[in-house]
Write a structure and sequence with these properties.
Elements: H1 2-33, E1 41-45, H2 50-63, E2 71-78, H3 88-96, E3 99-104, H4 107-114, H5 122-139, E4 144-146, H6 151-165, E5 174-176, E6 183-185, H7 193-203, H8 220-234, H9 238-246, H10 269-272, H11 284-289
Parallel strand pairs: 1-2, 1-4, 2-3, 4-6
Antiparallel strand pairs: 5-6
Length: 290
């Protein structure tokens, strides 16, 4: 009995510590990127995975002590995957007492029909899901759509774009949708996946696996995820340093002329040679011919 009480206290302390860390991470992200404002109606997209459960949990926790009033609703898209436990989320959300909506759309059949066997389904699945959620948000007066992507997701996307897309980009913490109808936020952008995973386990969220895409092996994202986890084990601090890098960009020290005007750069030879404003000015060609 004494040993059990000791273990319970240890678990409670760990849970409280993780919650404070995640609250701090989410609160800082909201402040840094202006994610939530007074009067916002925030739609938490709940998939049934650890990330979206944690996002909803922390946002509801912050809502109680936030300096501004904002509304939180939970929305799940039931994509009619075979064996999907339809009762899990309604039961959990009803007990939580939060407003929620379950959207039923059979995107599973469309994906299976359009994507050849063995190919990655994530691209088409995410586009269909995004369109449905964007439409719902507009119809229900939602001002912010919250997604559960975390710090590790941003780094994985950065490397995926570099390795396979030839682009230096990742998921932004806040963006306006391409059609201009919605603002998307990622409150977990500063949170570490290992903290979310542990918090989710301690909170005993009723996790629902994604059998549509999660069962596919050798996905490019999984390869990158494994690479980052290996670096985190072998080189402590490397992941933190890489994330700081995407928050501290120097366009003039990259090589994209669309974001930095390299053509107009000229040496101020007067300053370098002690010249004054009265020194005659020469065109570049004249200087070269002297």
């Amino acid at each position: 009995m004494a040993e059990q009480l000791k273990d319970d206290r240890k678990t409670t302390l760990e849970l409280n510590k993780l919650q404070k860390r995640l609250r701090r991470d989410v609160g800082q992200a909201i402040a840094d990127f202006g994610m939530i404002e007074a009067g916002d109606k925030v739609m938490c997209c709940l998939s049934g995975g650890k990330d979206s459960y944690t996002m909803l949990d922390i946002l509801l926790n912050l809502q109680r002590s936030a300096p501004v009033d904002f509304q939180v609703i939970a929305v799940n898209l039931d994509q009619k995957q075979p064996g999907f436990p339809e009762h899990v989320l309604p039961n959990y959300l009803s007990e939580l007492g939060v407003e929620y909506h379950i959207i039923e759309k059979d995107t599973y059949s469309i994906v299976k029909e359009k994507v050849p066997e063995g190919k990655t389904t994530c691209g088409l699945c995410s586009r269909l899901r995004r369109g449905i959620l964007y439409n719902f948000a507009e119809e229900h007066g939602v001002t912010k759509i919250a997604l559960g992507h975390h710090r590790d997701d941003l780094l994985e996307t950065l490397f995926l774009n570099m390795f396979y897309g030839g682009r230096l980009k990742t998921m932004p913490p806040k963006l306006k949708s391409d059609d201009g109808r919605n603002v998307v936020i990622r409150p977990l952008v500063y949170a570490r996946e290992k903290d979310i995973e542990r918090y989710s386990s301690l909170r005993q969220f009723p996790i629902i696996p994604c059998n549509l895409c999660g069962s596919q092996e050798n996905l490019q994202r999984q390869v990158v995820k494994d690479m980052l986890k290996s670096w985190d084990r072998e080189h402590p601090g490397r992941i933190e340093s890489m994330f700081r890098a995407i928050c501290n960009v120097s366009p003039s020290h990259l090589a994209d002329p669309s974001i930095h005007d390299f053509n107009s750069l000229e040496v101020d030879w007067r300053a370098d040679n002690g010249a004054t404003s009265e020194t005659p000015a020469y065109e570049r060609l004249d200087v070269l011919n002297l």
